[in-house]
Amino acid sequence: MKFFIVLALLGAALATSHHSIERNIQETSFRAGREYRYLFNGQLSAGLPIPSTPQGITRLQTQVTLQLTDGNTARMQLQKIRFAVSQEETNSMKMLPFEKFEEVDNMDREHQQLLSMPVEFDYEHGLIGELRFTHGDQAWSENIKRAVVNMLQVNILKKEKHEGVEKSDSQEPTFSFTNVERTLEGECEVLYTVEESKKQEEQRWAKSINFDKCTRRPYIHHVQTPVCKDCKQTLEQDKMSSTVFNYNITGTPSNFLINSVELRSQHLFAPITEKHQLISAYTLNTLELIYAGEQKTEIKQVRSEQASDLIYNQESEWAEQQWAQTKRKNTSDRCHNGLRQRRDGREDVLFDGQQIEQGEAELEAAHTVARIVKVLRECNEEQLEKIYRHVVEHKNEKVAEQLRSIYFNTLTLAGTRVTIQQFADKVQDRKYITPLKASVAIKTLVDMRYPSLAIAEDVARLCESDVASSDELLRQSCWLTYGAIVNGVCGQTSRVFVQKNGVRMCPRDAKKKIVDKLIQQFESAQTRYEKVLALKTLANAGLDLAVYPLEKIVLNEQLDTTIRTQAIESFRRLRHQMPTKIQRVLMPVYLNRKQPQHIRMSALHQLMYTQPEWPVLSQIANQLRQERNQQVRAFTLSLFRSFANNESPCEQTFSSRVRSLLNNIPFSSEEIDRYESFYGKWSAYSRRHQSGVETSFASLFSTESVLPTEMMASLEGVLSGEWNQYFAQIGLVQNNMEKIIKKLLVSVQEKGLEQIVVRGKRATGSFQPAQFLTNLLEKLRITRRQPSEQEPHALVYIRHRDMDYAFLPIDAESIPEVVRSMIQRGRIEIGDIERVLAQGIHFSASNAAFIYETVRRIPTPMGLPVQFTSKMPTIASVRGQVTFELEPKSGKNFDGLRLRFKAEPRLASTHVLALTALCPIAQVGTKFLHQATFNTPIDTELIMNWEDKVVIRTIYNSPSEEKKIAMIQSRPVTFVRTITTSARQYPEPVEMTYMLPANQQFSQSLDREYPQIRVQGTWNRPTNQRVPQWVLDNSVEVFYNPSVEKYEAHLEFDLYNNYKMEKNYEKEFKKHSGKVYLESEVEYDDQEHQEEITKKFQWLQNEKVYQHIAKFELKPEIVKMQVEAVCSQDFHFCKTQIRGEELKATIQHVYPQTPRTVEELKEQKYRQLVVLGEVNYGENTLKININGQQSPEQKKWVKQIEQAPEHETLLEAARLDQYQAVCEFFFEHKPAQYFNRYWSLVQAYLRSQYPWTSRIESREESSRKNVVRALFNIEPRQRQTVNMTIETPMETTVLERFELPFQLPTAQIHYQPRNNRFE
Fold first, then answer.
1. CA 434 to chain centre
2. Residue 352: what pLDDT?
3. What is the structure's pLDDT at 6?
4. Most exposed of 260, 680, 819, 1187 (fewest Cβ within 10 Å)?
5. Do 678 and 708 contact (CB within 8 A), yes or no?
6. For residues 443 and 484, what is the distance between their CA atoms, to the nearest angstrom?
7. Which pLDDT belongs to residue 673?
8. Which residues in 736-776 belong to E strands, given as ranges?
9. What three-state secondary structure class fits 641?
10. How confident is the model at residue 279 (pLDDT cuts 50, 70, 90)?
11. What is the DSSP letter of 278?
12. CB under 8 Å to 959, separation ≥6 — which residues?
């Protein structure tokens, strides 16, 4: 019934909208030689699917003439074509009258002619076959015609298979079926539902497209994130598409007539989070029969040898892609016609960007950079050269220099072959861009939108040029970028390019040529650095054909271990592309105990990231059970544990697999913690909020070195709605570096630091560090465990999105000449460099970059594509000066320094979310701009002295007047850009910033003043929860108005002073017995407590005790504080006192005796940890007493694990899982009110969130006033469940079995030896 009502309303709406059109229907079915005319109305909106929010809408209306000829062929022609746009309409869910829109009056004649060209197609039983378009028609025009033809496709023949289905007399005959069809939006499975009316001859058909079952979809997806199978299931569910047709048909399957069609389609994009509303492209098409009868004029026959199908034609996108990748001019004239439309206006757009570097960082500066990049992507060589000449010939040299820096950045950001070739040419000219700036700018190509082998070869020629050969930094950046570009073309990425006629972007021959080239570079390299550079380039390329030569390098034991380790790392870009092959290569390396330990651990690290299946994991587990090397075992266990507890959406399937395996492997945390080789992860992810972050850290040690062989830290997380796996990583690889450290320390010990680091040729001074270094050497015992012939070397590297971004070699071969010149006769003479630093170094830099850029383009049923763009253009500049002086300025030695840093950093960044309906006639859309600028001048002086104690003074000079230091703005905009072929300038869009109605938002005017800070602006909040905050118009400005000329911070450290324990120290602990305050039963009596405290402090009398003092003062008198700590050498006792102007705090703790074995622990009855604290602030006082001990449940747990290894049993048996606390407070009235208010909120939260596990009981008699008692019991096995009892003067709050998402740390009283490496 609802179906009939909807169709009736649709018919009424159509009748109302087109009352002026006469209808003359003389036919009841499609017949050859007859003419059928339809009125087509299309409406495409881009914006938020929320009522009352303006949308950018494109409106199309045309009369469609359809003529059927003999042989199941139909001809179609569009007539009376009208285009219109709107920026203000809000109701896009219904077809709006054409009169409500702003019609494009002067539509270009060429566009009219193209749209009027006829099309011929095969039409049999409602299905569309081949289409033949008029010669000279263009892709965008063809696609609009496809959109009309697409509405005529209905699989009427399949109905015959269901004619025999019996229905009851009271039911309307209905049935459904599925079929695979080629539609405008792809070749997908469609679902039909047919309902016939007994009273009428009409049949109502509904058709929907299942986009999850498509074998072919014409879309483009440019994203910078790596491939992640689990992420696609987790994050991409929000990017939904749906298309539904409703047909009104009369007749039979052999003789039928389509009377009307309605199409509704929606494509959703989740730019930030699932919680917030999605950006929507909504299409509403209607096709209504207005004439069926005699053929009045015959549509011309289409003579075309080339046939195509109904699927959207990506010729325009192909031409754009080919232009960017290869600059082929003959690929498509339409691309270059589009260039001519904007040719004269390009320079104006670019030169508007001069505001970027003139004075303040303007709010629109970053957005202007994005517009420059957009225009440069379509320029040819002549246009670019013209722009370049204008830039370099600017009259103001200061502005010209900064503008040139921005210009070269935008050339690489544009990333077309034309812009890259000009960039390479200008770098080789060495005139207006230095190699240093070129090495920074070329890094932008790592994430370029349209990589190609042609561009890669252009970059390779730059890498092999003389300018790159003479500058190692440029050479390294160039080759690493070359590898990244090759990976963008040939590797497995998330990008989706346009494919045409079976053209392969990266054929096998091309890959083999690249691999052979890089392997040849590796084999011919004379130094370790050059070999590492070749391997890292190969790693960035991520070519599958590189596996075989890399395998030979990994297995070649004659090579340097660092080279072999880098070869293992070179598999990382292939982990998801060919995991089985990598497992076959690296598994034997890990299982071979004769291999160096750090090579085995590196191989295992790469193996785990291939996410192996059960057979491989089982072999690793079996090796783990019999592993003798404790470093390898500890690293393997920590790696397993990290993956098992990982919350990253990219590894959930693999994490569950490892978790199951780990449950069957007996191990303890002590096995991991007692050794240095370690791998750890910390991750948090919210599916609901679509946000998350993951950090990881790894350290690889071996018995060959006291230093870590490799250390690594990485960061991952959600950015722009995508999980950025391997987002950033920094690492250090070293071999035999302790040889240099030992030599240096011994040299300093023998000669003195003043003989090693000298100001020119001065003699020795008074600073004698020999005794200090002697003690250090004795503690470290820096000696080789095994002899090594390898020269000392190290490697520091940085990776971004799993690409090697830069690396710094540290060895004798790579020391710069300027450093070599400072080392003379075994001494480091710093006199020359000291004079240079004292004169001051001036610096100035400007840079433009895209933090990220994501582009998705999909066709709509109206024949026009929509493009969703999410990007963050950013521009930054800094000017300043730094001076450095050693103090005293004259003398034989130095014991201080003075550093002056003065800079003016500026930053402007814009986060752009835009959805645009692309059409050569008019482009409309919606975009959300989130802009921020920062201008924070810095004038700081640092004075440091370490003669007797470390004293640091920092002076900050305030600006002389009020200054705007920050501005943040969000602005929702609808825009319209009308394009005509006769235009001789860049068509600027007409933008409209929209505001929600006053009754749908709360508006707040900001004008607040804080100490030296003033905030002003407007802040709007939506009343409707469906409307996200980020789509509202907001603006906030922050001003800094200094009231003080300068601030001075004074920090002083006086550490490790010998201290004699006073005999009355134990009195404080003796009087705090467990029976004084705590009502719960205490196992130890008061006498035993005092005896144990006395023994402990008698023992401390013979131990080394140190006093540490730290003082901090901030002038003018804002903060003044002193911290004094008296601690034993092992920190089993510590008393810390903090003194401020009104603050006085003391906290002290004492541990019981620390047993070394389980037997010693059993004999030790007293196991209490006592913590005392007292805080006084003004008239407020807080005293706290905490006793940590063991609960009966803990002792039962220890008995259950007595059969475990000794160290594991001791570790668990020495934990304190029960804590009793007493707080005695004396608060003034106002703080007491705050305390009661917050405690009431906590209780309300417990009642609502934990009604079954919490209870609050009133006390019949008030206990002691101003005292709060608490008892915490931690479950000893997993330490993630807590029972709490909190007694206040008026009530008791009990919370049972409270589960936490993390494991609670507990105090341990067992003896923890120092690392045996340093014993």
1. 31
2. 43
3. 44
4. 819
5. no
6. 9
7. 61
8. 757-758
9. helix
10. confident
11. P
12. 937, 1040, 1042
Phi, psi of 1004 (to 5 degrees): -130, 125
Backbone angles phi, psi at 1144, to 5 degrees: -145, 120
Beta-carbon-side half-sphere exposure of residue 1056 (alpha carbons within 13 Å): 5
Instruction: Using DSSP, state whether 1168 is helix, strand or coil.
Output: coil
Query: Rounded to an integer, what distance in angstroms lies between the CA atom of residue 1027 and that of residue 1032?
Result: 9
Is the previous residue joined to 873 through a cis bond, with omega within 30 degrees of 0? no
Whether the link from the prior residue into 1116 is cis, omega within 30° of 0, is yes
Q: For residue 1319, which of 670, 674, 668 has the smallest C-alpha distance?
A: 674
How far apart are alpha carbons 695 and 238 in whole angstroms? 26
What distance in Å separates the CA atoms of residue 6 and residue 77, rounded to the nearest whole number?
A: 30
Give the span between the Cα atoms of 1053 and 1051, in whole angstroms: 7
Residue 288 — very low, low, confident or very high, per pLDDT cuts 50/70/90? Answer: very high
> Is 50 exceeded by the pLDDT of residue 838?
yes
Task: Provide CB contacts within 8 A for 14, sequence distance 6+.
Answer: 260, 286, 288
pLDDT at 274: 46
Q: Are 462 and 478 in contact (CB under 8 A)?
A: yes
C-alpha span between 588 and 608 (Å, rounded): 14
For residues 974 and 87, is the Cβ–Cβ distance under 8 A?
Answer: yes
Residue 341 is predicted with a pLDDT of 37
For the chain, how big is the Rg over CA atoms in Å? 38
E strands present in 92-185: 102-103, 119-124, 127-133, 174-183
How much is the pLDDT for 770? Answer: 40
The two tokens of residue 1063 are 């005999």
Task: Give the DSSP letter of residue 332.
Answer: -
Q: What is the pLDDT of residue 760?
A: 52
SS3 category, 926? strand
Measure the CA dihedral 602/604/605/606, to 10°.
Answer: 90
On whether the CB atoms of residues 1282 and 1275 are closer than 8 A, the answer is yes
Contacts of 218 (CB under 8 A, 6+ apart): 185, 186, 311, 312, 313, 314, 858, 859
pLDDT given at position 829: 61
Taken in order 487, 490, 492, 496, is the CA torsion positive or negative?
Answer: positive
Length reported for the chain: 1319
Q: Which two tokens stand for residue 502?
A: 């079976």
> Residue range 741-754: average pLDDT?
62
With 70 as the cut, is the pLDDT of residue 302 above it? yes
Q: What is the pLDDT of residues 1002-1045, one digit of tens each?
A: 888 888 988 889 999 998 888 877 777 777 889 999 999 888 88
pLDDT at 50 over 80: no
Tokens read off for 74 = 């139909």
User: Would the pLDDT of 826 be above 60?
Assistant: no
Could you tell me the two tokens for 329?
């001019």
H/E stretch holding 903: strand 896-917
- CB-based burial, 895-921: b 16+ in 10 Å, e otherwise: beebebebbebbbbbbbbbbbbbbbbb
User: Tell me, what's the pLDDT at 236?
Assistant: 47
Considering only CA atoms, which of 1158, 1155, 1167, 1278 is closest in space to residue 1209?
Answer: 1158
Compute φ and ψ for 402, nearest 5 degrees. -70, -35
Is residue 1124 within 8 A of residue 1136, CB to CB? The reply is yes
Judge whether 185 and 209 are in contact, CB under 8 Å.
yes
Distance CA 450, CA 489 (A): 8
* Mean pLDDT over each residue of the chain, to the nearest integer: 81
Q: Which helix (H) or strand (E) holds 16?
A: helix 2-17
Contact yes or no for 203/249 (Cβ under 8 A): yes
CB of 709 within 8 A of CB of 735? Answer: yes
940: left (phi over 0), alpha (psi -120 to 50) or beta: beta
Question: Are the C-beta atoms of residues 528 and 810 closer than 8 Å to each other?
Answer: no
Is 710 in contact with 699 (CB distance < 8 Å)?
yes
Return d(Cα 468, Cα 166) in angstroms, integer.
80
